[in-house]
Amino acid sequence: MKTASRIYSALVFLFLYAPIIVLVLFSFNSSSSTSVFAGFSLQWYKSLFQDEATLRALYNTLILAVCSSVAATVIGTAAAVGIDKFKKGVARSSVMAVTNIPMMNPEIVTGISMMLLFVFVGRLVKNDSVLGFGTLLIAHVTFNLPYIILTVLPKLRQTDRNLAEAAQDLGCMPVQAFFKVVLPSITPGIITGMIMAFTLSLDDFIISYFTGGPGFQTLPIAIFSMTKKRVKPDMYALSALIFVSILLLLILYNLAQSKSERESKRRTK
Q: For 160, left (φ over 0), alpha (ψ -120 to 50), or beta?
């Protein structure tokens, strides 16, 4: 059974990561072929950094991902703290059900509905070109919020509620008690949610397609426009760089989290 389970796990990881390995490999291909590796070359990386349109789309995507993840983290953390104060009952269940709707709803439905809302508001304020960075930011914050809330809530439940009360007994104001006692204990959940929100915003296509305007193009939309002709090989190089960057970010975060857990265990002992 152990051998079979190991083989099964190996096959699962192979199917998951084989496409990424092939993509990274062919990003160093000296030819534009997607089936024959002609030799090692960095020409597509050089071509990538000379493509102003692609770099502009990448810059727009990173700015949008950073702004939306930070905004969603702040709003989502505050919402999670508020939900945690609810007593178990109809009100709490209703709020959690509403929170899960953007996550369970098909993205195409969310994208179209938000586009109609933005266009309607634009008509009210007599602005026909309302779609742009602002509407994209609102849309990305909206679909990121549930993930922030669902990663922060478990940390709040694990936090001893008497700690904040003890801090207030020692002279802290309620706001000070939150920032000095509660916030440090839920920081791992906040960081996890922010990283998840960042990657989701970086990857989103459907909602961005419907809520974005011609003046602000994200990378997924730029790549989609290339598929009508032919995706240039320098996109392999860009995808490889994004994958390596996200992988390093996750490794550094996991190392920092394991270090903090070891320090907390040492202090407990």
A: beta
In order along the chain (269 residues), what is the average pLDDT of each group of 10 residues? 82 86 84 76 85 88 93 93 81 81 85 90 82 91 91 84 75 79 84 88 89 85 78 81 84 75 65
pTM: 0.83
Q: Which residues pair with 40 in a beta bridge?
A: 29
